[in-house]
Amino acid sequence: VDARIRDALGRQPGVDDWTIRREASRGVQLYLVGDRIENVRHVQHEAYEVDLFNRHQTDAGAAVGSATLPVASSDLDRLGPLLADGVTIAASVHSPPWELPGAGDNPDVPLADPQLLSPDGAMRVAEEFADRIRELIAQHDGRVRLSAAELFLTASEEELENSRGASGTTVSTHVLLEINLLSGAGNQEAEAFRQVAARRLEDLNIENTIESLARGAQDMIHAGPPRTHLGPVIVGGDAIWQLLGAGVTGGPGAILTQASAASAYDNISRLEVGRPISGEREPAGDPITVRANARLPYGLTSYRLDPDGVPAQDLLIVEDGILVARPATKRYADYLGLPTTGYASQIQVAAGNRTAASLLEDDGHRCEVLAFSAANVDALTGNFGMEIRVGYDHGPDGTRRPVKGGSVTGNLFEALADARFSAETGLFPAYQGPVAARFGRLQVSGGD
Amino acid sequence: VTAPNQDLSDTDASAAARLRERFGFLREVVAELEREVPYASALVRQADGIRIQLRDGDQQAGRQDPQAGVVLTVSNGAYLEEASTDRTDPDAVRQLARELAERARSHRPTAGEPALQLATNGALEADFATPMQRPPNAESLGEKLERYESLRQRLRAVDSRAVQAICTYGHNELSEVFVRRDGMVTQQLRRVVLALIVFVSDGQQRQYAYRGSGATGGLEHIEVDDADLHDLAGVAVSMLSAKPVPPGTYDVVADPATAGTIAHEAFGHGVETDMFVKGRARAADFIGRQVGSDLVNILDDPTLAGAYGSYFVDDEGLPAAPTTIIRDGVFERGLTDLYSASRLGVARSANGRRQSVHRKAYARMSNTYFAPGSSSRQEVLESLEDGLLLCDALNGMEDPKGWGIQIWAHHAREYRGGRPTGVIYAPVAITGYVPDVLRDVTMVSDQLAMSPGTCGKGWKELVPVSSGGPYLRTRCRLG
Q1: For the segment A40-55, what is each residue's pLDDT rounded down to a tens digit?
Q2: C-alpha pair distances (Å), A106 with each of A1, A100, A294, A342, B323
Q3: Assembly ipTM
Q4: FRET partner for A220 with CA separation of 20 to 30 A, picked from B14, B30, B212, B474?
Q5: What is the pTM of this model?
Q6: Pick from B59, B166, B405: which is nearest to A95 by CB?
């Protein structure tokens, strides 16, 4: 951390506590259009963020105000006025008092892919990865072709220290792949798109990604809307994390949001500790068990210490369908008198005891979804309505028809009452858990 | 193309002069780069602002998304190479330029690699700034806190079933300098946003309603009165009795927010020409062809006064101008960035936009909307014999290849005989096939309302936009 910031905070009247975060990153970005390179980018980023706290009295009693001040490199020469503005902000807002965390024992959480830590290494890896994509597509003998791909490889170093002794450094890498394959031609042409992020290149599992995209692109040429029905929906592929994991805006998703102490404090949580998260519906599936495991190795949202300086924890949140604990940042833990667990991160769902293939077995009609157009679960209500991007209608006679369009709607919490989960698990962006789940009754809207 | 000089206030003119003085060295940087490569440009972006969030028992405030950085762009003759940094001092930028030039020099064209001829738009020397009637800085932070906490408390008190009310305010000033061999342009863009959300509970369930306003300009664009607060709380309370919409295809009227989202997802993303280059846009085969009813006119207009997605010059140095995408049901042209327009050999539109200096420019929308028609709002609603009014679209996702639509509306109101029945449906997922939805447009009302938003390319590359339109009657599949 730049000593100028620490010193300036120490000199600034009205600063009672502070947290400084620094992030420095270097990355390469490679863009392909068809077989051509469109753009090669080198990115350097370094920035600070300062939370400063002002403790004061109001008519209602003791209060704390805080101001979050992102500090760009160009701000380092004008810290005095910047911090003075920050104190003005912090003295003007009034929240109930809470204390910053002190020194803690930050766990070692592996978050970096070593081959991506140097810019030259990352560029070489990016070029090799692009070649590998081309090779894998070539193995499909012209049945599919590369429309476009984007590969971002970023290495970051983050430091944190606060006025109460918390400190830590995290080295991590981040990989983002966006890829689109085309199959067919003219009116009989379809695409399969995937955007996926991970800590390590190997977690992109490019061989499986290309294989599933190639299959999806070819199948979707002849896809029609799903049959409208209220019945079983089996969710796999990317659809599983779109439903159970991150929210549409990159937030923690409906389960972690509703379980959080912040939602309880805001009086907007529909969940209560000791009660089933699926509400009044009679449980009829595998009772769900959920952890917020910030220590998960190579988890995309795992961390060593959270943005307040709280060491990462592995927290059991839902056990056999019952909410047993609320993830609580230091602020909301102090407000509600709960144990501090740090920011809710990296949702982990326990495996079921059936194979993913067996979840599809049924005598009746059922819909299998491998990708929705977008993750779109309302974190405040649990309601969702998502268009099917890649799916299959399975008929009682054993037929399997590709489907696309239409929608699956329901409420996630209510749907969990009769959900069954696969024994096989996988690591997805911001979700680790079963690779497939079967929901007993969801509304599918498509063809009449 | 030379952009017309805007009449700037003395303050804005001084700020523009400071930007020119501070970043004048970029003319030399670009000239030096062009001794090595056929094309070079530089973009500086600086942004700063304030964000406030107020709720029961908690207040938060801070700077809003400050940015400072430079991106240098060159063509090596075959493709683009770029380098970006947060440092804006001349030494750091010159060093970045040297490294970029070395990489570009090392490129050896391979056999059959097509040359990249970038179509630049001609000389440009101009300074621009968003005009404001009530600049955000004319009001102190304390005055803002008092004003918006009062607003929040009034919303909270409208109905006894309210359990939480949240008010979020933000303003942001973004300064950009774009430099190319044939000129330098500066722009100062000011944006304001105000969002209100109220949660209600009947003891069994919680529901919410949301109202967002945002604009380029000053505080005059985000005024909210008590009637707005009552409407908002009324929507939230009505949601407590909402039931799931029976799946099926319905006659619908899309409100302006929903109509705008249809325009954005259907013929906004679907006509971004980087998608044409990638073979991802079905619209590429429909230029000059009928794609909707004669009542359908869709525009993208970055010059729309006050709209949240407005700007003066795009991030690749082209002065903003409106683009008619669909005229009388016929698809006329797409929205371009520099690379895709050059590869396709089509005329540019000013839609090359970046999330930040650390991301590349893509073809992006600005303010996208259905143009108003000739029916009144009342006539459109009264035409609904048995259908639904779709309200307050929250988000959507594009499908340029399949021409599918996914839009999520906050709720829908049932209409029978042209009158609301009081029945509310939620959640509402709107899906459909773009040509069907546009073909079935049979009435268009005569007003235009825009909604602010943030638009991603897929799930990333976020830029400020707005979308909107009139009340639009069509048919959609709901679920």
Answers
A1: 999 999 989 999 999 9
A2: 18, 16, 11, 12, 54
A3: 0.93
A4: B474
A5: 0.94
A6: B59
